[in-house]
Amino acid sequence: MAKYELDIVGNAMDSLHESLDKYAQGQAGDVRAHKFAILNFCHFMELILKHYISTVNENLIYSNVFKVVSKRAKADNISLIEAYEALEEEDFDFSSPIKGHSNPHTILVENALAYVESDKAYFDSDLADEIRAMKNLRNDIEHHKFSMNTKGIRLALGRLTRGFDEFTDVFDIIGLEEVIDEKQLGVFKTLADEYEHELQEARVDVREAHESAFRGVRPKHMYDVHWESYDCPECGHDSLMIPNDDSSSGYRCTFCGNEESEDIEVECEICGSSWPNGEMSSWVDTYVYTCPDCNDFDSKW
Ligand SMILES: [Zn+2]
Ligand SMILES: [Zn+2]
Question: Which of 44, 160, 171, 186 supports an S-S bond with 16, CB 3.0-4.6 Å?
Answer without folding.
Answer: 44
